[in-house]
Design goal:
- This protein is mainly β.
- The chain is 0% helix and 49% strand.
- The protein has strands spanning 4-7, 10-12, 18-24, 33-39, 46-52, 57-59, 67-72, 77-82, 91-96, 105-109.
- Strands 2-10-9-4-5-6 form a six-stranded mixed sheet, with no helix packed on it. Strands 1-3-8-7 form a four-stranded antiparallel sheet, with no helix packed on it.
- A hairpin with an 8-residue loop joins β9 (91-96) and β10.
- It is globular, with a radius of gyration of 13 Å.
- It starts with a strand and ends with a strand.
């Protein structure tokens, strides 16, 4: 079990960028799949994308081409680079190892 802490959220204008970070309390080297989810107000939590231990990624169609997930096993970190942000990207973003979840970080896209 690892503790996950997200950071990097905030308020950004439409078309802007943000980089979220997920810090794990222990080694993630042996964790095959890690991912990002998000939950908008009044909606169910939905997957944003995932990354495997060899760096393979998969994304939700709504973010494909705009978001990029990466991980640094040596630093026990995972990242979510978000570009061309839209108001509909507003949500609390969570990182997960599938078994463990962070507390989330708020991303608000608005003028």
């Amino acid at each position: 079990q690892v503790r996950l802490v997200e950071s990097g959220g905030g308020l950004v204008q439409p078309g802007g960028s943000l980089r979220l970070s997920c810090a794990a309390s222990g080694s993630i080297e042996s964790i095959n799949v890690m991912g990002w989810y998000r939950q908008a107000p009044g909606k169910q939590r939905e997957p944003v994308g995932l990354i495997t231990s060899d760096g393979s990624t998969n994304y939700a169609s709504s973010v494909k081409g705009r978001f990029v997930i990466s991980r640094d096993n040596a630093k026990n970190m995972m990242y979510l680079e978000m570009d061309f942000l839209k108001p509909e990207d507003t949500a609390v973003y969570f990182c997960t190892t599938v078994k463990d979840w962070g507390q989330g970080t708020q991303v608000t896209v608005s003028h």
